[in-house]
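S1.2 Input.
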Amino acid sequence: MAVWAIGDIQGCYKSFRELLEKIDFNPAVDKLWVAGDLVNRGEGSLETLEYLYSIKESVEIVLGNHDITLIAAYYGIKKSNPTIDPILESAEAEKLINWLRGQKFLHVDYQLGYCMAHAGISPEFDLGMALNHAQRVEEKLQGDEVEVWLKQMFKSGIDRFNRDASLVDIDRYIVGTFTRMRYCYGDHKLDFDQKGAPTDAVRKKGLKPWFECEDRKDIDLRIIFGHWSTLGLYEDEHVLSLDTGCLWGGRLTAARIDSGTVEIVSIDCKKKEEKSEEEKPTSPDVPQP
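S1.3 Output.
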């Protein structure tokens, strides 16, 4: 049995299936971890969900910001767009959305020595805290009051963790860190606006990638994450970043994580989409909790 982790698919279904073929993925015996952002902008968002649902017993998924936005669009909280319209118009929409609602914000495997969250784990959280907070918002997403809760999550972002804040603001912080986080300041204040690579110019502003923040809580497991295409493939002893920007004309990347050495396999995006500056979104990071 092999265990493969894969970065953001974002509806690039053809590239996704080509990558699975290249790694010889067999859902009957292998496991696939997907680091969130399954849908949106790519031409095969519906097909991606349908396929993952068909092999759901062989897949571990964490939710990304675009997945949360899809769920919100299903409830009429956010506007749809042409790439997710086929999902919302599908006869299987309710089944697929309910299945998505049942996915995690944080997946942990102590035996393999890895955990996975779409954007990472807040520098304020140790693993126990992260698990507790993830379960908290998972229950909200799966609950009967999901529409009310989601509307609250799409309000202004919360960039600091405050145990004395309102329950809604705490939830916004939790969802924001798991789905949108990239940078933090030395005092662990998050910056949700900076989206580029961690250049010297960015660092001079006092910003560091969340996994480099001073006094970050210890996480004994290696953290797999996506969300950060401008960072791209990055690994050190603490983290493994797998969003290599397939949607933006980059590559789609998988990492085998069940052996002592990580094996990286990538393919060029099946269809390289050329987008003008006007077409490129200025803020792909929704929701904004």
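S1.4 Remarks. The longest strand covers residues 251-256.
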